[in-house]
Design brief:
alpha/beta; Rossmann fold; 3-stranded parallel sheet; 4 helices; His_Pase_superF_clade-1
Length: 217
Amino acid sequence: MRHGEVENPTGVLYGRLPGYHLSELGRKMADRVAVHLADRDVTYVVASPLERAQETAQPIAAQHGVTVASDDRLLEAENVFQGKTFGVGDGSLRNPSHWKHLTNPFRPSWGEPYIEQVVRMMGAVTAARDVARGHEAVCVSHQLPIWVTRCFAERRRLWHDPRRRQCSLASLTSFTYQGDKLVSVGYSEPARDLLPRHLVPGANSRRGARGGRSFGA
């Protein structure tokens, strides 16, 4: 699961910075997913240690009478633009010293290599699968690590156009296993109707300033 909306009035790429919590809407998203999963056989809930992920996991864990575990492997991707706004004008791209970080989108040159994200994320998923063996687990993480892990599972290339990621706020990317074998990948958006209009695919409106969309969150 990707975490819910974050309170980020200045629109920075918060990355792994501490102190970024769910907004009121983000808490509603987390509650919505908890209700959506109420009838599922969830026995293990684990999240990235960042506040927004822990807060998203909390109502799901409470719904199933378990505590939220933490796994550093579910962390957001490292990014050199962390703590900055991203874009032209008053964003990071205005500074020529930052351009060197945009030379290789295939790695990517601005942050943690895609394959390294996949390795740690698959480790976390495998560990959660084993803890919840015979039942279901919920792992709460962040957009980019979730997306590249899905791409890997579906045997797609890891480099991509960030605008085309299918991983909205509070969405569920589901891995189904038979024994140790991954047999299917699914995707759903239980909180779709709560998404701000500029984040709904096909909505004809400008993007707002609630965070770093291009590099995940």
